[in-house]
């Protein structure tokens, strides 16, 4: 895809976000009620856009530093460890501030992603499918521990909303930390050249004069920040960080700087459409965006698995 075509696609995605955003704001009763728009609907819209962009970008970074198309915050256990940190913040430390909860979720995400890469190094990468399998098993283990802690501290009811990423609970005063996605995106674009080289492997990156380990560690920070932000504010969004980067990288380019805007915009559009669909299917009730993304993303993931089956990691 040429640069001109990529820019046209970016412009089209921006228009889609504007159109879908307008529809999202207009849905429901009391459309003209300014308080509802400012207090509930606009925060929900902004949270959806920022979360979609952040999770998709985290998936792009994870796939580059792990050199695996099936790696993402969802399939590496990052979000599960972030959720564990969040539950510890609520249950053990009784953290009341969002900053404290974010901090523990971030620490959990960092620890979890580091464990994932440590296990990956020790177990090897005999197949492209071993990486997500390892991450998913690690995630199941941590998720079980999280559920036990939630049961122990009477947090299961709140955790159920988190499991399905219910954006209807997002209101003014509870989502603003998601704006941290913007500077993280900017920082990722700055280090985009090194992330692209990191995708070639440690030896190649070293030969080209790039510090592979520093790039990987900074990438871990990016993935952990994005995962912690989305987990604490909205909840766990399945498959988004897995499928969006794959579609963009395969259809456009493997250059991180070139595909970063498309990845962020595509993630925002897909999450917006999933949210709107969930609000339309069984009106006046809503289906949490995590469920709609699970259905769509799960289907796409199965197609990806069938195409990559048997392929060895290069």
UniProtKB/TrEMBL annotation:
Keywords per UniProt: Cell membrane, Membrane, Transmembrane, Transmembrane helix, Transport
Family statement drawn from the similarity comment of this UniProt entry: Belongs to the binding-protein-dependent transport system permease family. FecCD subfamily.
SUPFAM superfamilies associated with the record: ABC transporter involved in vitamin B12 uptake, BtuC
MF term (GO), any: transmembrane transporter activity
Protein name according to UniProt: Iron ABC transporter permease
Cellular compartments annotated: Cell membrane
Superkingdom of origin: Bacteria
CDD domains the record matches: TM_ABC_iron-siderophores_like
Pfam families: FecCD
Membrane topology type: Multi-pass membrane protein
GO biological process, one term: siderophore-iron import into cell
Record-level GO cellular component terms: plasma membrane
Transmembrane segments: 12-39, 45-63, 75-93, 99-120, 127-149, 177-198, 218-244, 256-273, 285-305
This protein's record includes keyword Membrane: yes
């Amino acid at each position: 895809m040429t640069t001109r075509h990529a820019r046209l696609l970016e412009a089209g995605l921006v228009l889609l976000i504007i159109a879908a955003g307008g529809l999202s704001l207009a849905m429901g009763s009391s459309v003209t009620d300014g308080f509802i728009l400012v207090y509930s609907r606009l925060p929900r819209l902004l949270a959806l856009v920022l979360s979609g962009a952040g999770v998709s970008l985290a998936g792009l970074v994870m796939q580059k530093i792990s050199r695996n198309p099936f790696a993402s915050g969802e399939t590496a256990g990052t979000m599960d460890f972030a959720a564990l940190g969040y539950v510890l913040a609520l249950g053990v430390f009784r953290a009341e501030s969002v900053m404290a909860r974010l901090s523990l979720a971030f620490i959990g995400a960092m620890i979890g992603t580091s464990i994932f890469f440590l296990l990956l190094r020790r177990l090897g990468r005999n197949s492209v499918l071993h990486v997500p399998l390892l991450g998913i098993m690690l995630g199941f283990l941590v998720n079980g521990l999280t559920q036990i802690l939630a049961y122990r501290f009477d947090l299961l009811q709140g955790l159920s909303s988190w499991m399905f990423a219910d954006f209807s609970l997002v209101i003014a005063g509870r989502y603003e930390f998601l704006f941290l996605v913007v500077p993280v995106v900017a920082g990722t674009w700055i280090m985009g050249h090194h992330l692209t080289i990191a995708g070639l492997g440690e030896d190649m990156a070293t030969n080209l004069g790039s510090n592979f380990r520093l790039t990987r560690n900074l990438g871990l920070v990016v993935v952990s920040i994005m995962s912690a932000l989305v987990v604490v504010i909205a909840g766990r969004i399945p498959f988004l960080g897995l499928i969006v980067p794959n579609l963009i990288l395969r259809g456009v380019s493997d250059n991180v700087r070139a595909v970063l805007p498309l990845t962020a915009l595509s993630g925002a559009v897909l999450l917006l459409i999933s949210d709107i669909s969930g609000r339309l299917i069984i009106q006046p009730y809503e289906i949490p965006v995590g469920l709609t993304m699970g259905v769509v993303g799960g289907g796409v993931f199965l197609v990806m698995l069938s195409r990559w089956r048997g392929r060895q990691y290069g």
